[in-house]
């Protein structure tokens, strides 16, 4: 009972802190300056925006949340609508790159959600956190994987985003959804390039979850191989998981000898029947070593023959 009370108080403190961050300052008397800034952003009138922000009476509202619906900072609005020039002007004038709206969403989160690749790049280059806000249950990587935005996904991963991130849920809520990371979303939505990108950057090919205590709490955790077979994913997904070292004996797959087998199931059964080649095992060993050193993308930097570099990176 004491533990539950302590946990509740901890979450209450988090919520209180979050809302205190979102409250506008009482000493800011807005005489329409915020509205003018937002109008310039909505029209992507970056020259007017630059002129306004050069004046102190406007610049003090650069991080002010205003407007109908979800009150937003000018940067959040620019990122949502893909107004790249306005994004750059706001950042140049010192806009808070990771400001939060009332949903604890950052400008980067909104740019990713709306598929604005250039805005994502500008925000990341300005120091935006690729993981989004700790107060938001979702993350930019989960959104990019779900939507199949491979270019945006790579940008996030290049800036240090976690490949095995899950929705931020309390431990008591752990279930199969808690292990549904970016790799799972890319598979069920059929985004093969995102799926491969995540594996190349070190996503776990078994559960897409590295927290053993979370997996242990789930009554019947499902592996990625099981998920791909259940959802009828193309055999390319199964092959990639096998090539990237998924445990082919881990999934509990019932084989009906009288029913036709999918190509994916055939690949899984063949992998169980035949050991990996020495070359394949060497590739996995090298990838594991680089993953332990947090240098998975460094495979492309090795001074080795192109044919070998392509093999290590699972390229043709």
Automatic annotation (TrEMBL):
Which GO terms fall under molecular function for this chain's record? transcription cis-regulatory region binding
Question: What InterPro entries does its record include?
Answer: Ankyrin-SOCS_Box, Ankyrin_rpt, Ankyrin_rpt-contain_sf, SOCS_box
The answer to whether keyword Signal applies is: yes
The entry's protein name is Ankyrin repeat and SOCS box protein 12
* Pathway the protein takes part in: Protein modification; protein ubiquitination
> Record's Pfam families?
Ank_2, SOCS_box
Q: Give the ANK repeat ranges.
A: 70-102, 103-129, 136-168, 182-210
Give the GO biological process terms: positive regulation of transcription by RNA polymerase II; protein ubiquitination
A GO term from the CC aspect:
nucleus
Q: Which first-to-last residue range defines the signal peptide?
A: 1-18
According to its UniProt entry, the function of this protein is described as:
Probable substrate-recognition component of a SCF-like ECS (Elongin-Cullin-SOCS-box protein) E3 ubiquitin-protein ligase complex which mediates the ubiquitination and subsequent proteasomal degradation of target proteins.
Q: Which UniProt keywords apply?
A: ANK repeat, Repeat, Signal, Ubl conjugation pathway
How does this protein assemble? Answer: Interacts with CUL5 and RNF7.
SOCS box domain ranges (all copies): 275-315
């Amino acid at each position: 009972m004491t533990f539950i009370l302590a946990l509740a108080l901890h979450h209450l403190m988090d919520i209180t802190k979050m809302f205190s961050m979102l409250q506008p300052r009482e000493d800011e008397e807005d005489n329409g300056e915020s509205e003018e800034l937002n109008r310039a952003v909505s029209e992507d009138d970056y020259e007017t925006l630059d002129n306004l922000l050069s004046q102190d009476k406007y610049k003090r509202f650069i991080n002010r949340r205003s407007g109908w619906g979800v009150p937003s900072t000018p940067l959040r609005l620019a990122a949502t609508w893909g107004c790249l020039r306005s994004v750059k002007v706001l950042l140049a004038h010192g806009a808070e790159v990771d400001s939060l709206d009332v949903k604890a969403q950052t400008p980067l989160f909104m740019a990713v959600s709306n598929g604005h690749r250039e805005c994502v790049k500008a925000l990341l280059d300005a120091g935006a956190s690729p993981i989004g806000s700790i107060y938001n249950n979702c993350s930019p990587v989960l959104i990019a994987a779900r939507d199949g935005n491979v270019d945006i996904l790579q940008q996030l991963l290049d800036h240090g985003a976690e490949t095995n991130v899950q929705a931020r849920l309390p431990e008591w809520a752990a279930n199969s959804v808690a292990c549904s990371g970016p790799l799972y979303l890319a598979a069920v939505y059929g985004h093969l390039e995102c799926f491969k990108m995540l594996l190349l950057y070190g996503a776990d090919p078994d559960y897409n979850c590295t927290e053993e205590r979370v997996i242990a709490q789930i009554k019947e955790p499902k592996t990625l191989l099981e998920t791909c077979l259940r959802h009828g994913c193309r055999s390319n997904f199964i092959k990639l998981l096998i090539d990237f070292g998924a445990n082919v004996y881990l999934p509990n797959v019932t084989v009906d000898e009288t029913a036709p087998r999918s190509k994916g199931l055939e690949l899984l059964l063949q992998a169980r029947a035949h050991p990996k080649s020495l070359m394949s095992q060497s590739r996995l060993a090298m990838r594991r070593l680089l993953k332990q050193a947090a240098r998975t993308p460094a495979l492309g930097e090795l001074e080795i023959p192109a044919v070998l570099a392509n093999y290590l990176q699972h390229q043709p």
